[in-house]
Amino acid sequence: MMSGSPGWAGDTAAQPAEDPQSIIAELSNKIQARLQDRNSTRDFKQVTDYVSSVIEPHTDFDLFSVLVLGKYWKTATTDQRNNFKQAFKSLLIRVYSRGFVEFNNWTIKFLPFHHVDDVRKAYVKTQVIQAERKPVAVDYRMVSEQGVWKVYDILIDGVSLVTTYRSSFQNDIDNAGGSLDKVIDKLNTRNREADATGQ
Q1: Could you report the per-residue pLDDT of 46-99, keeping only the tens digit for each?
Q2: pTM of the predicted model, to two decimals?
Q3: What DSSP string describes the chain?
Q4: Domains in the chain, please, with CATH?
Q5: What's the half-sphere exposure (Cβ side, CA atoms, 13 Å) at 127?
């Protein structure tokens, strides 16, 4: 749902087998069917494992990481890129899973769909509807990679995860004296602590 390679811009114009909105609907339905049973959310590790298995085929974690690191991606070593991608992927799946666990009796409403100027990109607009609560806008930026639509940014009430995490990590890197390794180590520590406490 939410949900590669840095070389996506060079893909050939393969036509996707499914349209972007249908993919988001399918992934949302799978997650909703699992998480609406509150018993299934008691073990958060099982929740994140399940969400990961559902969204990974349609999420471009590589491109997510490239956009989040911004200028620091260009100077990062191969090991740093791989290490950051894995740590950030864990963070993203955990945050995404937590958001849907906290939603209560939710349904997804799809707003009118449109492609952007680049035919390989799409913008899927949805609302998470909950009883007696204001709808939450959850929108997906997607890109077609060799005929498969993948998410590379998610916007919550108009706020881009890519933009938010880019600002956060760039501040962290600056505060660490420009050391990406220190930031990756800190992120890995946060992930381990979250896993240990089921958060």
Answers
A1: 899 999 999 999 999 999 999 999 999 999 999 999 999 999 999 999 988 888
A2: 0.84
A3: -----TTGGG---PPPSS-HHHHHHHHHHHHHHHHTSGGGGSSHHHHHHHHHHHHGGGB-HHHHHHHHHTHHHHH--HHHHHHHHHHHHHHHHHHHHHHHHHS-S-EEEEPPPEE-SSTTEEEEEEEEE-TTS--EEEEEEEEEETTEEEEEEEEETTEEHHHHHHHHHHHHHHHTTT-HHHHHHHHHHHHHHHHHHT-
A4: 8-197 (3.10.450.710)
A5: 9
